[in-house]
């Protein structure tokens, strides 16, 4: 079985158990005292391997810069530079999904999503908006939208085929697991590997801190209008037809370079709830000499020494004299 399918199933089973489990809390005489025997055989090593977070999209993100569609196509037209990780853009998935869990397995970083409950945008609104940027972009989007929602003529594979392809990957990659059911697509998981972090010019410490601070994911494609239009066209054409594409990418330092994208899509059918799972792999080939590990360490020092000043809706300050915290009104 594919590792990512296994992680997705495990997370779903854990959630089911949590929802059905009855928690009985015994009363304690002193509720602030918890006994812990030092030197016991409690294994705490696994606590360092799993980080669970629950974030909402920051209020500073304007509602006008995203669309929500049944096809789950995510098209932000601008982003707030104050919320970006260095020069990296914000992953479009962050506008319609919250991260509910983050795991690391070997060299893979796995993010589990739940959709934010927002109304769906009418198709014509998106089409007309994209046509303002390029005459053919609206038509390409509409074709892509309806094609990805089609359930007929899907090539169904078995999990062994997915595993064999997964084992053959040697490059930087991102993988998405989506569920297709009743005319709607929902993204369940996104995973990236260590090479993808190198492409972005960051490391695990930077990624984890950024996700915890903002609830967002970084993205290696520039959001400048002309370059983003090329990215969109590549997404519309390459993802559906599995065509190789070269697209402009950007890293933490603002370096822009070409990346060869190789997409691969698999479909699995679940008879229990009449749904389909789509597993989409996007391999990236790029000049790995553009950024070295020394540069990434330098980027980390810059990030933690001079963090982006992310606006906070509330500011709580410490008063060392009174030994308390207070909020300015």
Structure description:
- The strands form 3 sheets. Strands 1-3-4-6-5-10-9-8 form an 8-stranded antiparallel β-sheet, sandwiched between helices.
- The protein is globular, with a radius of gyration of 22 Å.
- The protein has one domain.
- The protein is about 30% helix and about 25% strand.
- It is α+β, with helices and mostly antiparallel strands and about 325 residues long.
Backbone shape: globular
Tell me about the biggest sheet?
A: 8 strands, antiparallel
- Please compute the radius of gyration using only Cα atoms: 22 Å
Spatial order of strands in the largest sheet: 1-3-4-6-5-10-9-8
How much helix is in the residues?
A: 25-40%
Topology, number of strands: 12
Oligomer: single chain
Task: Flag low-confidence runs.
Answer: 310-323
Number of helices: 8
Whole-number total of structural domains: 1
Order of helices and strands: HEEEEHHHEEHHEHEEEHEE
What class would the helix/strand composition place it in?
A: alpha+beta
> Mean of residue pLDDT?
79
Task: Tell me what portion of residues adopts beta-strand conformation.
Answer: 25-35%
Cα-to-Cα separation, first versus last residue: 55 Å
Protein traits:
329 residues; alpha+beta; eight-stranded antiparallel β-sheet; two-stranded antiparallel ribbon; globular
Brief rundown of the structure:
This protein has helices at 3-20, 123-131, 137-149, 159-168, 194-200, 204-214, 225-241, 293-305; strands at residues 50-51, 89-90, 97-105, 108-115, 172-181, 184-193, 218-219, 245-250, 256-270, 275-285, 316-319, 324-327. It has 329 residues and is an alpha+beta fold.
């Amino acid at each position: 079985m594919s590792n990512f399918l296994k992680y997705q199933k495990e997370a779903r089973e854990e959630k089911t158990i949590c929802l059905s489990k009855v928690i009985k809390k015994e009363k304690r005489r002193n509720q602030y005292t918890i006994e812990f025997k030092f030197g016991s055989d409690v294994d705490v090593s696994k606590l360092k391997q799993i980080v669970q977070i629950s974030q909402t999209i920051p209020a500073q993100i304007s509602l006008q810069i995203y669309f929500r569609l049944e096809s789950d196509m995510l098209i932000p037209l601008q982003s707030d530079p104050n919320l970006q990780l260095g020069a990296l853009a914000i992953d479009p998935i962050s506008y319609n999904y919250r991260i509910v869990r983050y795991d690391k397995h070997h060299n893979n970083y796995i993010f589990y999503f739940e959709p934010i409950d927002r109304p769906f945008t009418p198709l014509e609104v998106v089409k007309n908006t994209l046509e303002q940027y390029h005459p053919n972009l609206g038509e390409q989007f509409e074709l892509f939208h309806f094609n990805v929602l089609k359930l007929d003529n899907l090539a169904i594979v078995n999990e062994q085929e997915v595993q064999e392809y997964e084992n053959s990957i040697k490059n930087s990659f991102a993988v998405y697991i989506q569920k297709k059911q009743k005319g709607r697509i929902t993204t369940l998981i996104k995973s990236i590997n260590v090479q993808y972090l190198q492409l972005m010019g960051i490391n695990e410490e930077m990624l984890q801190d950024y996700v915890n601070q903002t609830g967002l994911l970084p993205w290696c494609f520039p959001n400048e209008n002309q370059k983003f239009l090329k990215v969109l066209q590549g997404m519309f054409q390459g993802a559906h037809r599995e065509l190789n594409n070269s697209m402009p990418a950007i890293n933490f330092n603002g370096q822009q370079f070409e990346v060869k994208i190789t997409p691969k899509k698999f479909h699995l059918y679940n008879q229990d709830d009449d749904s389909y799972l789509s597993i989409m792999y996007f391999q990236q080939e790029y000049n790995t000499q553009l950024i070295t590990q020394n540069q990434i360490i330098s980027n980390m020092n810059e990030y933690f020494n001079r963090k982006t000043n992310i606006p906070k809706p509330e500011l709580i300050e410490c008063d060392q004299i009174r030994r308390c915290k207070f909020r300015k009104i």
